Amino acid sequence: MRQAEDLVWAAITDCAKQRFDYCGFKYWLSEKGDERVAEYILFQIIEGLAEELSLAELALKLRGDLDLFGYPVAEDELTAFLAGKPQALAAEVSAAREALAGFAQGRPAPELLERMLETLS
Prior knowledge:
It contains eight helices and no strands. It is mainly alpha-helical. Helix 2 (22-29) packs across helix 3 (35-50) and helix 4 packs across helix 5 (75-82). The longest helix is centred in the middle third of the chain and has 16 residues, at 35-50. The chain starts with a helix and ends with a helix.
């Protein structure tokens, strides 16, 4: 079942990549442009906004994650990057809230995936 849940989150994250300069974001993190780190951080941004973290709380959480991955980022750079994300990712944040609620209610992942694809298209 975990794989079906991963598909729900991948659909949300993949859609989010279209909402801003994802390639620039990926390379901002690293000259190598590590796709896994960029996807993880993007997912954390969406999830944090869905959980209604403030931008300051989200920045603090992300800085910790980035430090663990060996990507030290200045606080002002991260804050500037996050500034427009609640608006730019509004559809994905809404879809993530719906997915979190659906999983908490025990709804099946295939049903949620279908709903997310409808919501995000």
